[in-house]
């Protein structure tokens, strides 16, 4: 007999949990007002130090933030509020569904193989967002 399980997605991670009756359910409205990828220009502007002029993600000394290995300035911007670059992304964009997709793709999980360039993350984010929000 197999155990009934489901995946619980919370914050930036996922956990396999045994299936049981929920005692409470919390719902959060997530804005979907961004209609252009120009919102991500602060990340793609080489003057901000996240990517090089060719779009390659710039590395940094490794630290662990919230259980994630941060070895480049992109993940630093996504995770570390103490970073000097964190504030190039406004809080209003951080709340948007499209940004949450981007963040999920960039951070991945335990078996994630990171990209060296930012463009695959942006292209996949756009594709998923267009498919999910119509």
How many domains comprise the coordinates? 1
Distance between the termini: 41 Å
Uncertain segments = none
Which sequence of strands runs across the widest sheet? 1-2
Total strands: the figure is: 4
Bin the helical content: 25-40%
**How does the helix and strand content classify structurally?**
alpha+beta
Average pLDDT over all residues: 87
The best one-word shape is globular
Order of helices and strands: EEHEEHHHH
The gyration radius over C-alpha positions equals 17 Å
Q: How many H/I helical runs?
A: 5
How much of the sequence lies in strands comes to 15-25%
Describe this structure in words.
With 134 residues, this protein is α+β, with helices and mostly antiparallel strands. It has one domain. It is built from five helices and four strands, in the order ββαββαααα. β3 and β4 form a beta hairpin. α4 (97-107) packs across α5 (119-132). The protein is globular and about 50 Å long.
């Amino acid at each position: 007999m197999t155990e009934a399980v489901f995946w619980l997605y919370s914050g930036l991670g996922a956990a396999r949990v045994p299936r049981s009756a929920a005692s409470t359910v919390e719902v959060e409205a997530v804005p979907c007002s961004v209609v252009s990828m120009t919102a991500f220009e602060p990340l793609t502007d080489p003057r901000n130090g996240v990517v090089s002029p060719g779009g390659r993600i710039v590395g940094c000394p490794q630290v662990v933030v919230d259980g994630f290995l941060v070895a480049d300035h992109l993940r630093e911007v996504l995770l570390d509020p103490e970073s000097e670059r964190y504030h190039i992304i406004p809080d209003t964009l951080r709340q948007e569904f499209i940004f949450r997709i981007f963040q999920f793709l960039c951070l991945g999980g335990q078996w994630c193989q990171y990209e060296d360039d930012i463009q695959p993350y942006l292209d996949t984010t756009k594709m998923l967002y267009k498919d999910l929000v119509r």
